[in-house]
Amino acid sequence: MADHSSISTPCYETESGLVSIEDLLASFADPQMQVDGISRISDLHLKIGEVIRFRLDGELEPVEGGKPLTEDVFCQLVLPLLTPPLREAFNGGNLGDCDHGFYWEKRSINFRLNLFSDRDGSACVLRMLPKEVPSIDLLGFMYPQAIERISALRSGLILVTGVTSSGKTTTVASLLNYINQTRKSRIITLEDPIEFVFKSKQCLISQRELNTHIVTFADGLRSALRENPDVIYVGEIRDQETAGLALTAAETGHLVISTLHTKDVKGTFSRLVDMFPSDRADEICTQLSFSLSAIISQKLAHRKDKPGRQPVFEVLLNDSAVANLIRTGKWPQIYGKLETSGKQGMNTLEQHLLSLLSNGEIDRAEAQSQANDGNFSSRMG
Question: N or C: which end of the chain has fewer CB atoms below 10 A?
Fold first, then answer.
């Protein structure tokens, strides 16, 4: 279906009248929807047959008085956000799933757009990417020495883990931004898609996007190793080949940063090792014990003291004792190591939750719901 509407064409019916996609995007920049300059709205969901919804503080909220989307209105809202080739593919029914970046020039805001189809027709999710990368000092780690040690690393593998929409990309961006400001290094990023856009400062940065500049993360990693990098960011370790190459790159003196969808430190080891055949488990554990530098596992907890959400971190920093537990496959014992290594900057998720609870930043119910430990309620007193 051809469409000639623009971003400012009013077409979606609400109780206050017709609104455009530009009006909907303006909600992300509304000062009333921000806390400490950060929008409480993270995503905009559009789906044919349903009312448009915003993700506000992690919960989906429908547009007030909004009507279910028709195919015609969906096209009027979404097609102006696409490039001409993508628009042509959508109109021809050949687009399929699509990840696309959209830059809203009027407000200087970048969005990540995912367009897909389900049994009811087309659907789309837009995620706003913050204008400014948060300072590494403001991420909210339990112990300042943790981020001091991590940001000083020159080699090894740093894994940032968590479920979808837990803030992993922001944490990685803060770390890369710090390196960009403080070192004279070569950074190569492999992303799907490019989210935060970096300008070279002290560092020389090349950002490469899946399906635009590289075919797979593994291909990008092989290429990066021939491009004289100091730091390589791999958007996500998804398979055995990428995991193996990331470990090798870390072993050979590069700083490799990547993400995994795991909820805690212990689960990260299981996920990585399970990517390989069982007869290679001992080999991978040994390689990890030497290559791994740090794991940051994170969640977002609803705040009690003000609107918005607060990152909660579990932090592992590799040392000789941790390396021995990794090498011998004694991952359950790593939790105890985290609990007793605060001076080194390590902590469990539950320790950080208790700290936020005692400071009045979250309430008991939220602390309980975010904990990985089933017996956590007994520790809250």
Answer: C
